[in-house]
Amino acid sequence: MLSFWEKKHFLNFDLIVIGGGIVGLSTAIRYKKLFPNKKILVLERGLFPSGASTKNAGFACFGSLTEILDDLNHHSEQEVTNLVEKRFSGLCAIREEFGDEALGYQATGGFELITENEIADLNQLDKINDLLYPLFGNPVFDEIKDISKFGFSKKVLKVIRNKYEGELDTGRFIQSLWDRCQQLNIKILTGAEVRHLDIENGAVMVGERESGITFKSEKIAVCTNAFTKSLISELDIVPGRGLVMVTKKLPKTILWTGSFHYDKGYVYFRNVDNRVLLGGGRNIDFNGEQSTDLVINHKIRNYLKEIYSNIIMPGSPPEFEMEWAGIMAFGDSKTPIVKMVNHRVGMAVRLGGMGVAVGWQTGGELVGLLSKV
Ligand SMILES: Cc1cc2nc3c(=O)[nH]c(=O)nc-3n(C[C@H](O)[C@H](O)[C@H](O)COP(=O)(O)OP(=O)(O)OC[C@H]3O[C@@H](n4cnc5c(N)ncnc54)[C@H](O)[C@@H]3O)c2cc1C
Predict the structure, then answer these.
(1) C-beta of 351 in contact with ligand 1 (< 6 A)
(2) CA 75 to CA 291: how far, in whole Å?
(3) What is the arithmetic mean of pLDDT over 31-45?
(4) Rounded to the nearest whole angstrom, what is the distance from the C-alpha of residue 60 to the centroid of ligand 1?
């Protein structure tokens, strides 16, 4: 039962964005910057964003050596360089927009652990540096000469550095987006799950059909990533759950910082406030992780703990204090789906595992499409 005032002031907008993750908030901000007089509403089903954007590891990365080599098995050289370019320029764009301090950005570099399994890949290091040279004007990857300082297990034979990667504070990134929304007078409603999208009439219903509230809008942006199929079916989107764990604060100072990758980027870790943040391992149970349920996969948890004790911190007991899951979205291509469904509804979804890097730009691409029609 709505009041006269609620009906008069709260139901009609120029742009409604469904989903309040990195892409949804970026879309709202970039649209408002282009059209300052437009009235914009973001509808987020969770109290906080409840997909990937506050659950991620905060790697400001664009691909480790072995991940790029793996990508070249499935994509052309041009496609792979385009992906790297998009991710790197996306990172530069958020740093420029919000500033390193606001994002908690640290240019600490990216590092990849090379074991016997990957050692042959090093033969292609120069080839990849040559491929990426036009983008960076310098070699991207080099080998760290003295790896004893890291204290990794002897199974780690080499460590490859990527000097252009870094790390940021995931919470501060979302806070920066929220702050910008507030400055621009963009309304965000949380706990607002859209259950029905009326594409033809530009209407969205929050809540159940009988008791729900219908909002109307000139344009609608669907930014629901892995959850999009509940609103728009027949899309090439497969959910991919990811696990992240954080240890207790360690008594001894951790001697390394940066974004660390292992096993083609499937496993990743970093030093956060002298704790080890460790995540990934989806490749241990691909099928089991094709889920939108926010629960912990015990097989993967055990696998990560083994990596902690056997590779990263040899001999140390894995004393993890926190763990959580987040949901990513994948498909046949690593490129997000950014398209219009009709003249008023567009979507920017399927961000994969590098939405920190490409989320802001992807929102910008959707705004480009929404503002054309
Ligand atoms: C564990 C993990 C680690 C990651 N680590 C990194 C990393 O280190 N670096 C990196 O670049 N990327 C990383 N990523 C990927 C990155 O976080 C995502 O690509 C990015 O956050 C996607 O942003 P998004 O806004 O598209 O999606 P989401 O953050 O999933 O946002 C979609 C939002 O839509 C909301 N929603 C869904 N359905 C509805 C509905 N019907 N009504 C209202 N709201 C709805 C959801 O609650 C959600 O908040 C990681 C992801 C995970 C899960």
Answers:
(1) yes
(2) 26
(3) 98
(4) 15
